[in-house]
Amino acid sequence: MTIRVLLADDQALLRSAFKVLVDSEPDMEVVGEASDGAEAARLAAERRADVVLMDIRMPGTDGLAATRMISADPSLAHVRVVILTTFEVDDYVVQSLRAGASGFLGKGSEPDELLNAIRVAAGGEALLSPTATKGLIARFLAQQGTDDEDRDPARAERLESLTVREREVLVQVAGGHSNDEIAERLEVSPLTVKTHVNRAMAKLGARDRAQLVVIAYESGLVRPRVE
């Protein structure tokens, strides 16, 4: 299947460069371009996009607000948002992950990294740059404090619905590990890990693995550490 990509960036030159790159691939195509978040949310529905490459900083409705709009629309549950940022550590990126983004990527990334990010996000199998994203969330949450009173009690209560094995898998996901790595660590098959991950997402209302990482930290299941 062809991956339908929507480009959301207020810089026309960047959109043009991304379009040439994406359209050069046989398994993906650009189905629309937006210069602000509101337009991105509208076109995501109209053009039936699979992945939205979302600039975080745009005039008017920014990428954060647009991500929330897309995530809140049940008809767009299949849409994956990849945040594009010029900052490696940016509070807005974490907020976007909380709002429903599948991950983030630096604008200075290599072309192959961008194309791979689109495929990974479209597949919904893995968190985009898992270790980097986990570290970003950890650093941000560490700044917010690590006391129990800073944890989200609602998130913690929802963890009670998980089985012991699902909680173990969630801890591994929050550590930035792939299904294959988790399978090796827990001595089970990758298919079993995938099943546990999917069940955890369903029980916790997470759209993807990025959301699971956020939940694991916000609930206090995993404590942030700053190297």
TrEMBL record:
Residues 4-122 form the Response regulatory domain. One of its GO terms (molecular function) is DNA binding. Keywords: DNA-binding, Phosphoprotein, Transcription, Transcription regulation. The modification 4-aspartylphosphate is found at D55. GO terms for biological process: phosphorelay signal transduction system; regulation of DNA-templated transcription. The keyword 4Fe-4S does not apply. Residues 155-220 form the HTH luxR-type domain. This is Response regulator transcription factor.
